[in-house]
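If your schedule permits, I should be very grateful for your opinion on a structural question. I would ask you to consider whether the tokens describe a fold that such a sequence might reasonably adopt. Thank you for your consideration; the sequence and its tokens are set out here.
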Amino acid sequence: MSFETGHVGLNVTDLGTSRDFYRQVFRFEVLGESGQDERRYVFLGQDGRLVLTLWQQSEGRFPAERPGLHHLSFQVPGIDEVRDAEATLREIGATLFHDGVVPHGEGASSGGIFFADPDGIRLEIYAPSGADVAPAPTSGAPTCGFF
């Protein structure tokens, strides 16, 4: 039996704010949406493929110190795409955890940017190569940028 990740579903506090954030940063398209009071959601994807569902059914901010999601990571083909996403994040005033692209470990070529969405959910956009020009955020390897 073989498995691969399908889509990811996230609870959000404000569907409009989160929809706009994920569309701006990830360039996702809206595949479906419901504005019904008790069932507010949006399906986001790329090239017609569902990637992320957002459900407005929570309050407050995501508690990273509790069991559950550590972070959600998205891979892009190259470091230029990572830098484009970083520029968008800076334009919209998102919370970045490091100043720019960082490698996954000292001397590692893979790496990216680490940031939070409007609800505090920790996210990463990384490339498999091209990040080895910066120091790693911690001296030990591997790291994900949130330690």
Summary: The chain has two helices and nine strands. The two ends are 34 Å apart (CA to CA).
